[in-house]
Design a protein that fits this description.
heterodimer, A: 113 residues, mainly beta, 6-stranded mixed beta sheet, 5-stranded antiparallel beta sheet, 0% helix, globular, B: 116 residues, 7-stranded mixed beta sheet, 11 strands
Chain lengths: 113, 116
Amino acid sequence: GESVGLHLPTLSVQEGDNSIINCAYSNSASDYFIWYKQESGKGPQFIIDIRSNMDKRQGQRVTVLLNKTVKHLSLQIAATQPGDSAVYFCAEKGRGTGNQFYFGTGTSLTVIP
Amino acid sequence: DTGVSQNPRHKITKRGQNVTFRCDPISEHNRLYWYRQTLGQGPEFLTYFQNEAQLEKSRLLSDRFSAERPKGSFSTLEIQRTEQGDSAMYLCASRSLGSGDDTEAFFGQGTRLTVV
């Protein structure tokens, strides 16, 4: 099956700095990716998505980069705020594998005031 | 519409008892998913419905687990003869068909099950 992994399990950044969270995936046939944010005791919250025919997508303070050559995904958060502290997951949906999303272990982001 | 709703939020049960969780998806979302999440891990896929049809089941879904979506709206997940290893957060997500296959899945707040 698919394997989605994150390079760093924890990340600490100073408030106001930019954050970069990385994710590697193993299924080259995956065609759709989502970044989720999960706060303690809550369900995952959609942040931003990207399709495999794109290599960059921007949202409000967030940018997702997709490098299909090396099967790598990253989430950039600009001007990180204390409210950004959470666990971040990347999820991939593989083409032809049905409709489920595969999640990695997650990266815990801590923003230091 | 207030999003995906799950009930109960917390459930404590004794080993061997049966439990049932409910998920109300976003209205008009025809796709519904159940996931399980243990501490420090990402959500793991359990099963998927399109309307009332259960189209996919993970091998994680043992015979003690059953899910239904009888009218294509809300869904229930039942665990029979619970074991301590069933303790986890059970997440429900829904998704619209959209114009293609690339639409985001929206998650509920989950039901945290503790088996004692």
